[in-house]
Amino acid sequence: MLSLGSSVVSTASSAHGASFTKIGAGACGTIFAQDGRSRVYKLCKTDQHEFLWNDYTAHNNIANCFKEYRVEKISIPSCYYFSPHHDARFFNEHPGLIEAAKEKCNLPTSVLVTERIPALPEPTRHLLIDTYCATINREKAKADVANKDCLVRVYLGSTQGRSSMKFFSLRNFKLHLNQVLELGLDAKTLAQRMGIAMAVIHWAAKKDARDVEFVLGSSSETTPPALGSAEVENMKPMTYTGPSSRKNEDFFRQITKLWVLDFNQVRPITMDKVGVAEAVQAAKVNDPYIPKPLQKSAKEKELWNAFALKYLEMAHTILKGQEPEVMKLPVLFLRGLVDVEREKRGLAEEAGSA
């Protein structure tokens, strides 16, 4: 149900007359959306508008690199447009957004408009609640409207996931590696896709990937696929061509996909050892999305190798034809991650013997 490519029938809510609601927040901005609509509005909540502009330019750059290298197995939200804080017309055209944001942001403010990642469908949300929420709070969690905005952060570099959580929210739910395996998800494929995405961000977009997120969300799919012209031409006239169930909702399903998002903190890197060091530092301070090297279990070793091999494969595709010193940089990044983990283990051993 939560596996990549799994398909679940979803009934979309009507967006007519829908008001704006807050669906998320971070250091840079507060995110608003309308139920059933396909856009989100990220409003700068401080006077540091340059962070949101950086989010826009980096997002646009990385999205174009994904297209250039035909990265299709990892999704990135479409980046629509940026409205600066001094453009009063934007808020004149969005009075509902003013009403929703007036207590949370200093208006007018800058706004980044992007594609909304479809939340995971109800059956998947209920599975997560039944598995990880404390029994006494499960029905309350299922009834909580906020839990409809469910995206799952995938932490392949952590095994600290817990069950029976008393305080439970599905907004940006953290799914650690032990839970990924418990649910039977394809961790190796997730690791490989993260490797591809990181390579594109580093070597095509030339960004350090600081604070980017990898989440499981949905992607709307029309089923069955549209019929080909020749197929329709050869049909007997007046043939039924809809879903076999005759139910309209069976034409629309949600497929679980891995998404990469949140680019407000990414920084440019140079194509040299200094740039590699900056990329390593960014990975060091990020949440534990990508697999870690030097782990003890066979599964963790498998995931690190899967990540590293796909990272190098994609990096080679991007950098092919560059100077030999540049071609070595992706390997130096991976070695840097190994050194970071080795240093952490050394510090832990010192603390244990003290």
TrEMBL record:
<dbReference type="Pfam" id="PF12417">
    <property type="entry name" value="DUF3669"/>
</dbReference>
<dbReference type="InterPro" id="IPR022137">
    <property type="entry name" value="Znf_prot_DUF3669"/>
</dbReference>
<feature type="domain" description="DUF3669">
    <location>
        <begin position="258"/>
        <end position="322"/>
    </location>
</feature>
<protein>
    <submittedName>
        <fullName>Zinc finger protein-domain-containing protein</fullName>
    </submittedName>
</protein>
